[in-house]
Each structure stands twice: as structure tokens, then as C-alpha cells.
Amino acid sequence: MQTIKEIIFLVEETDDGYIAQALGHSIFTQADTLDELKEMVKDAVECHFDEEERPKIIRLHIVRQEVITV
User: Fold this and answer.
1) CA-based angle 15:20:24, to the nearest 5?
2) Do 2 and 51 touch, CB atoms closer than 8 A?
3) How many separate domains does the chain show?
4) Within a domain: residue 68?
5) Residue 47, pLDDT score
């Protein structure tokens, strides 16, 4: 198997905290705070990949939506 160099998570802020979804992989996690989410993402990646296949870099792409009324 080929080692993945990095993995990217799309992170959305919700009323209850944060939700992270890996792009191209079936990895999802959530947490109340951003610091907690970072630890949950690391744990999810460790559980999903064997050690020799595990990406060395995890990127979090944080999306924040704002509604503007006119």
C-alpha cells in the first residue's frame, strides 16, 4: 500500500461545537471545542489507517458561515 502524505478535513462550526469530515475518506468526528476536535481528528486518523499508511500531515480547513441580511 502507498503512504498518504497528508489528509484534509473540512471543519464546520455548529451551534453545538465542531464537525470534521475527511475529504476522500470515510472519517467523521465531532467535538465541543476546537482544541478537543484536533485531538479527536488525530485519534480518528490513527484508528482509520495502519501505522505504515498513516498520513504525516493533517490539515483542517475551517469553514465559517455568516448570514447577512439586507
Assistant:
1) 145
2) no
3) 1
4) no
5) 95
- Residue 1 inside a domain? The answer is no
Backbone φ, ψ for residue 50 (5° rounding): -65, 155
Asked whether residue 70 is domain-assigned, the answer is no
**pLDDT (tens digit per residue) in 9-20:** 999 999 899 999
How much is the pLDDT for 67? 84
Q: What's the pLDDT tens digit per position in 28-47?
A: 999 999 999 999 999 999 99
Cell readout for 43 is: 485519534
Pair 9, 24: CB distance under 8 Å: no
Rounded CA gap, 68 and 23, in Å? 28
The set of cell numbers assigned to 42 is: 488525530
Q: What is the DSSP letter of 4?
A: P
